[in-house]
């Protein structure tokens, strides 16, 4: 019989596929709702779609175990923006290759790390045992970190996360694009998928 601690460790591995599925489907739905008449989506709208995907995942798959992830807004938003930018340099109707998609996903991972790392640093400090006596709130925590340790402290610990998110971003977005291509071939009229 598994202990409570063992169950807590197993949860991410068990629920991750469901969380990812919800996140990607939600992102596609929000993205299609926010597209203009030409099927394009602006940078701010991709951020909104990414936030919506993170919110939907949090609401349906993660809550009450985790909070809403701003990471997804940044990750999906930057990926979509970079993909559209790269697509603008290709011939009409031509799709980006797997290597290009992997690179764009990796760059989206890099952007995600450097945009969200300060939030993670503050969150980690606020979760410490002595946080209640040291900080009044998250803003006070951030101010003290900046004042006493310097601005660069917000990005301490970013390198291991950077490697992980660049690789996972490349892999996940490449698989995402290939899955979309496969579904388009299986159901070209989009009646079932």
UniProtKB/TrEMBL annotation:
Subcellular location: Mitochondrion membrane
Alphabetical keyword list: Membrane, Mitochondrion, Mitochondrion inner membrane, Repeat, Transmembrane, Transmembrane helix, Transport
Keyword Repeat among record annotations: yes
Family to which this protein belongs: Belongs to the mitochondrial carrier (TC 2.A.29) family.
Residues annotated as transmembrane: 96-116
GO annotation (BP), single: mitochondrial citrate transmembrane transport
UniProt superkingdom: Eukaryota
InterPro entries: MCP_dom_sf, MCP_transmembrane, TXTP-like
Signal peptide feature range: none
Record-level GO cellular component terms: mitochondrial membrane
Protein name: Putative Uncharacterized mitochondrial carrier C19G12.05
Solcar repeats: 96-182
Molecular-function GO term, any one: citrate secondary active transmembrane transporter activity
Topological category with respect to the lipid bilayer: Multi-pass membrane protein
Matching SUPFAM superfamilies: Mitochondrial carrier
């Amino acid at each position: 019989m598994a202990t409570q601690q063992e169950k807590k460790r197993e949860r991410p591995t068990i629920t991750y596929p469901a969380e990812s599925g919800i996140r990607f489907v939600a992102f596609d739905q929000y993205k299609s709702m926010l597209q203009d008449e030409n099927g394009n989506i602006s940078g701010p709208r991709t951020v909104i779609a990414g936030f919506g995907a993170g919110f939907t995942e949090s609401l349906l798959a993660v809550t009450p175990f985790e909070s809403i992830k701003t990471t997804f807004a940044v990750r999906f938003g930057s990926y979509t923006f970079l993909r559209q930018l790269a697509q603008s340099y290709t011939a009409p109707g031509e799709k980006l290759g797997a290597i290009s998609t992997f690179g764009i996903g990796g760059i989206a991972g890099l952007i995600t790390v450097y945009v969200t790392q300060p939030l993670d640093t503050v969150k980690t400090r606020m979760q410490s045992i002595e946080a209640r006596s040291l900080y009044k709130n998250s803003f006070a925590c951030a101010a003290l970190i900046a004042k006493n340790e310097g601005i660069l402290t917000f990005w301490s610990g970013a390198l291991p996360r950077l490697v992980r998110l660049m690789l996972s971003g490349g892999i996940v977005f490449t698989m995402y694009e290939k899955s979309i291509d496969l579904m388009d071939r299986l159901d070209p009229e989009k009646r079932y998928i």
